[in-house]
Amino acid sequence: MHQYNIIMLKEILIKNPKFLIFSLILILSVGFHHNANATILQEEIKQNIQSYTEFKGVVIDSKTKSPLIFADITVNSTNIRTVTNTEGKFLLKVPSNLLDKKITVSFLGYEKREIPLKELKSNNNKIALNVSITELIQVKIKVPKDAVSLVKAALNKESENYYNDQALMTGFYRETIKKRSKNASLSEAVVEIYKQPYSSRTKDAIKLIKSRKNTNYSRLDTIALKLQGGPFSALYSDIIKYPEYIFTKETLPYYDFKFEASTQINDRQVYVVKFEQLPNVVSALYYGKLFIDAQTFALTSAIYSLNIENKNEAVQLFVRKKPNRVKVEPLKAVYRVDYKTINGKWYYGYSNIQLAFKVKWKNKLFSSNYYLSIEMAITNWKKNTTGIIKPKNNLKPSIILSDKASGFSDPEFWGEYNIIEPEKSIESAIKKIAKQLKREQN
User: Fold this and answer.
1) Opening angle at CA 322, ends 318 and 325, nearest 5
2) How does DSSP assign 340-409, residue by residue?
3) For position 297, what pLDDT does the model report?
4) CB-side exposure of 237: number of CA atoms within 13 Å?
5) Does the pLDDT of residue 384 top 70, yes or no?
6) CB burial class (10 A; 0-12, 13-18, 19+) of residue 25?
7) Hey, what domains does the chain have and what are their CATH numbers?
8) Strand, helix or coil at 3?
9) What is the pLDDT of residue 39?
């Protein structure tokens, strides 16, 4: 096997410092704060969940038994939905009056399963999904000669396949920090995205419309965790617009690309490409799957993870500041991006990033695991005819949303949606404030 030049790769990474820092940055600092809203909110949540039934479990591949991260669990005919975490685990809260319904469990490239809720236990449910295999119809499909050629075609077709005018998008953003399984910090925001053409290298801009937060510092053991990047971290997972954060011309040779069984997503035939860094490449790159439309070669979805085998290198990517007496170890970093299509053109529609860390104080016997999650979904978009590329008071890419958010100070906007329900889907939250969102968009 050809021996790749590791020194050359390191030089590439030095020249492209953002290549790996696309991963979220974690800031740790000693904090001794208390948020009165947190206590009130927790009491509201406790009262709210009394009429709910909880179901916990894990979604796995039926053959390999490996956990499926970002699998969707939806209660049929409702907007109640959750996704599995970095361990393939889920927590689904269902109102007691809906226990006669079924759930649908789905994952990209796998067959869906419908399961009556009455067949689930309250805990330790294990749901196995089968890989969905579709024979591609060869008519009008030009088959790529190999997987890497297909990936290059997908990355090079941004002008043909993706929306190439300036656009104004409205997005709903959610940021969650958990200690073990308990919520410690929650932030939500409505943002306006000044999206640039996919063929342009001009970066997108974001304007904050509404935001709110709740932090329970007592659950953080005097450690305040803050996510730097906020909505930009979600937006930069748009691989087609920002390929430099994962694939570049220089780094593509350091990956191994392989075809997996083709599948069908939303009635479209899709190639599935598995990728991972070559075994003799020591720097932390990515591994995962790309879902590429068989007719247009457009990237429609991607699920991938950062290789964190090199713990020392990985921690430098995530930790900007921390107390000297604290040791931080990244456990997992997983990303998902989905594209939508209108009138034959694709555009960024949704992303989800999940991080897991182990935090240990010096001279303390036990460590604590923290789970950080961000999601952003596009709720509306239109052609930008204003000529404005960067609005006044636009957010900086280094934004820490929890510092910018303002608690629950705007009940007129949030309306009846007066508590954050992180176990419910982001789509559920959007529906609850749909009228207010529409008012903001007009």
Assistant:
1) 125
2) EEETTEEEEEEEEEEEEEEEEETT-S--EEEEEEEEEEEEEEEE--S--SS-TTBPPTT--HHHH--TT-
3) 92
4) 33
5) yes
6) middle
7) 6-32+134-441 (no CATH), 48-129 (2.60.40.1120)
8) coil
9) 44
